[in-house]
Design a protein that fits this description.
3 helices, elongated, mainly alpha
Length: 94
C-alpha cells in the first residue's frame, strides 16, 4: 500500500493498513518526523526488505503483488534517504 492510501480517523491519528510484516518498519520510516530517527528506521526497513527478497528468491513463494510492493518500498526509502542527506547538507551550510 502506498503512503497516499493512509487513513486518518476523527482523532487525527494516522492508521496505515499493513499486509506484510516488513511493512511495519517501512510505514514507521515514512511517518517519522524526527530526521535522525527516520534515517535509523530507513536502515532497519531496508534490511527487512532485503531479507524478505532473499526469502522470496530462495523459496519461490510469495505473490507478484508483494514483489512489486517490495520494489516500491525500496524506491520510497531511497527518496527518504536522499531527503535526509539534503537536509543534513543544508544544516551543515548554516
Amino acid at each position: 500500500m502506498a503512503i497516499s492510501q493512509k487513513l486518518v480517523d476523527c482523532s487525527r491519528e494516522i492508521k496505515v493498513k499493513t499486509k506484510y510484516s516488513w511493512q511495519i518498519l517501512y510505514h514507521a520510516a515514512l511517518l517519522e518526523t524526527d530526521w535522525r530517527r527516520m534515517v535509523e528506521l530507513v536502515q532497519k526497513s531496508e534490511s527487512e526488505i532485503h531479507k524478505r527478497r532473499l526469502e522470496l528468491a530462495q523459496d519461490h513463494n510469495g505473490t507478484q503483488e508483494e514483489r512489486d510492493a517490495l520494489v516500491t518500498a525500496l524506491n520510497g526509502l531511497r527518496v527518504l534517504r536522499m531527503d535526509a542527506a539534503a537536509r543534513r547538507e543544508r544544516q551543515n551550510l548554516k
